């Protein structure tokens, strides 16, 4: 389903006509996805939109230089799309033109509107702290997980994970909200055996009017001990000796001794 902005752009193309006969109207250039700020490494697609009624022979995309001149992008002319990943070299303003050949002669459109690509670095890795630092607790004791974000003091939303799946922290003992705080904590007031596992965290940060997810932290291991049973482990129990086999060995013992007596005198 086409967006309202796309429909509006099409209407503008149909309404905006050149006053000079034979010169096509300017194209409308758009970005997909549309963001105020892009994260380094994100993929961006430029679309140069010309009127559907025209048979377009080719397209050319331009990037504004530091001296405010425009330089043609390599590989232009193949179609109405130009794709790249955002980095230091692709930040800047872009425009496009197209041309038609109604009688075998190139007729170029005016320059399109400008679109801007701004870049921000992705949120840095958070650090997960486990309290107690050893990660070993007794069943029934308290356990605290803290996610430390090294980013700016912007609004954040924190996520905690256990064994690769996101935790529903609303069901745990308590959680300290973060908002603009650089960290958030989850406190498990009474640890249970099923709290043993590998924990990690991440956070979302408000960048350019949208939420951007950070990478996951390194994992921290938690082991919950059951009093009297030692550390909880998922290893299978040792096999129980078979009483009937033990009794059989005892019955065979006299026979073996009798057979071994002649050997002692050889």
List keywords for this structure.
266 residues, mainly beta, Immunoglobulin-like, 5-stranded antiparallel sheet, 21 strands, disordered N terminus
Description:
This is Receptor 5. It comes from Podarcis lilfordi (Lilford's wall lizard). Residues 1-18 form the signal peptide. The protein has helices spanning 4-15, 243-264; strands spanning 28-32, 38-39, 43-49, 56-64, 70-72, 81-85, 92-100, 107-108, 115-117, 119-120, 127-131, 136-138, 143-148, 156-162, 165-166, 174-176, 183-188, 197-207, 210-213, 220-226, 230-231. The chain is mostly beta strands and 266 residues long. It has two domains: 4-120, Immunoglobulins (Immunoglobulin-like, Sandwich), CATH 2.60.40; 127-229, Sandwich (Immunoglobulin-like), CATH 2.60.40.10. Strands 12, 14, 15, 18, 19, 20 and 21 form a seven-stranded mixed sheet that branches. Strands 4, 5, 7, 8 and 9 form a five-stranded antiparallel sheet that branches. Mean pLDDT is 81; it is low at 1-20, 233-238, 245-250 and 252-266.
């Amino acid at each position: 389903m086409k967006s309202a902005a796309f429909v509006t752009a099409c209407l503008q193309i149909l309404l905006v006509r050149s006053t000079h006969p034979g010169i096509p109207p300017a194209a409308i250039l758009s970005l997909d996805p549309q963001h105020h700020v892009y994260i380094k490494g994100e993929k961006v697609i430029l679309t140069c939109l010309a009127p559907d009624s025209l048979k377009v022979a080719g397209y050319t995309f331009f990037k504004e230089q530091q001296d405010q001149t425009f330089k043609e992008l390599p590989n232009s002319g193949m179609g109405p799309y130009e794709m790249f990943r955002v980095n230091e070299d692709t930040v800047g303003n872009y425009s496009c033109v197209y041309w038609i050949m109604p009688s075998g002669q190139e007729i170029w459109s005016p320059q399109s509107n400008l679109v801007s690509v701004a870049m921000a670095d992705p949120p840095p890795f958070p650090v997960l702290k486990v309290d107690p630092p050893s990660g070993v607790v007794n069943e029934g004791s308290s356990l605290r997980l803290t996610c430390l974000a090294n980013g700016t003091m912007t609004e954040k939303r924190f996520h905690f994970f256990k064994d690769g799946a996101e935790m529903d922290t609303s069901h745990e003992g308590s959680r300290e909200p973060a908002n603009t705080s650089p960290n958030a904590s989850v406190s498990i007031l009474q640890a249970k055996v099923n709290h043993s596992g590998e924990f990690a965290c991440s956070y979302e940060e408000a960048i350019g009017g949208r939420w951007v997810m950070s990478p996951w932290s390194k994992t921290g291991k938690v082991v919950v001990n059951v009093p009297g049973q030692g550390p909880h482990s998922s290893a299978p129990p040792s096999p129980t000796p078979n009483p009937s086999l033990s009794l059989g060995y005892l019955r065979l013992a006299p026979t073996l001794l009798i057979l071994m007596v002649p050997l002692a005198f050889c």
